[in-house]
Known about the structure:
CATH superfamily of the largest domain: Tetrapyrrole methylase, C-terminal domain
CATH topology of the largest domain: Methyltransferase, Cobalt-precorrin-4 Transmethylase, Domain 2
Bound molecules: S-adenosyl-L-homocysteine
Structural class: alpha/beta
Number of strands: 17
Radius of gyration: 30 Å
CATH class of the largest domain: Alpha Beta
Helix content: 25-40%
Number of helices: 20
Amino acid sequence: MSLDAAPPLYPLFADLRGRTALVVGGGGVARRKAASLLQSGARVVVGAPELEPTLSAWALEGRIVHRRGRFRPSWLDDAWLAIAATDEVAVNREVAAAAEARRIWVNVVDDAALSRFQVPARVERGPLQIAISSGGGAPMLARLLRERLETQLDDSWSALATLLARQRGRIRARWPDPGARRRAFARLLAGPLQGLLRRRRDREAELLLDAELAPDGPTSAAPAGSVALVGAGPGDPGLLTLRALRLLNEADVILHDRLVGDGVLALARRDAELVSVGKQAGDHRTAQERIHALMIDHARAGRRVVRLKGGDPFVFGRGGEELEALHAHGIGYEVVPGITAAVACAAYAGVPLTHRDHAQSVRLVTAHCSASLDTLDWPALAQERQTLAVYMGVAMLDTLRTRLVGEGRDPATPFALVENGSRPEQRVVTGTLHELPALARRHAVRSPALLILGEVAALAETLHWFGDAPLSAASAVLRSPHAGAGGPVPAPGTPEPDRALERAA
Ligand code: SAH
């Protein structure tokens, strides 16, 4: 029969509780098959001359029954299904033939032709299961699809399925008509129920469902929206968390900073509304209030809002203020951490932030304007054997050097200045604290850039692995991508203002 003429397999979910399943084979594959059969409550019999250690232990504990020796058809006597998982083709054939003769469902691992049933790739969320089959023809495809679904479905699906299963009787009684039931479900799932479960607020979720199920409960009330404050990481989309990706896939509205790269935004749901809420220099206060208002209005309109911020929302990201605003207005929220610039830039420049030999602590510092610099504890910052990670500091490098050296930090302390960390256009400039402002100017370093100062920074010279080698005092002058690209090259002695980042601050 040609491939496209083959009818599709008939899918089924079998109740194996207390029923015997035979696995022939005693190696690693047999162990995996036995494990998933045990998980479904089957009485598992494993037949093989020898068992690998875990199977042996299970046999000793009585979790499985071991039939020792070469396969005999009588092993099938009380079996409902059988799996042949030996590496001997002849034995697998024998098992398949004997099972077929007794009309027992049989699977031969990796042999679709000999198999009468196939084990699908599975995504499990508690009682909820998605089984994927390629008909045995392209198991890799099924596996890839499984990976994709694994990343998209978080654990709240398990809690949701359990909760709904527990209330099944009441749900059917409340909406006896299947059409009404379907509509009610759609409304429930669009609402805050699942978000509550994701935030482990099980009790509130139960109460919410209870209210829905009350005979006079809401039937058409607008669902309440919520806001997720999500860290987008430093730019490389691969550094997003799974949860961030899931929320981007579900969002109705995404309010993002300018710092968030296109690569990350490209992962959002196609029909999500993308709103750039980058701030204008000199207009911080109103801009921040406008962001609060946008979040609140969209959430009140029942939308799922993602407030997407560069790096981590709670590290120099004003995430605290945004949550306070949401809290004050009674809007539900969750927070998804992101990889902050210090962590990402250090990793991508080959600079361990701590090192047994060089640095026992790390400080995250912002140097975004003179006023913020005045509030810093300079004697503490100037101490040795620690690493400073300075955010928003490009325009303040002269002051930084003067104050640190003034408080006794060695002018020979190494630094690594990382521009566009983790992005394809990343550049790293290295040198000593003494040369810092001059080198930054020479290489026209621009925002976003993160300064790592401390003994560990010297390791960038040897440990760098991403993109070009670090530019140092010895590097040829002006390997800046900005030079000659039409962009302004700052005159020597003029610090490049960190404008883009003033906006993001
Ligand atoms: N919440 C963000 C920080 C926002 S403040 C976080 O956790 O990373 C903005 C500053 O972060 C920039 O001025 C720069 O110092 C730093 N930054 C952010 N992304 C960066 C990147 N890809 N490379 C270098 N520095 C970055």
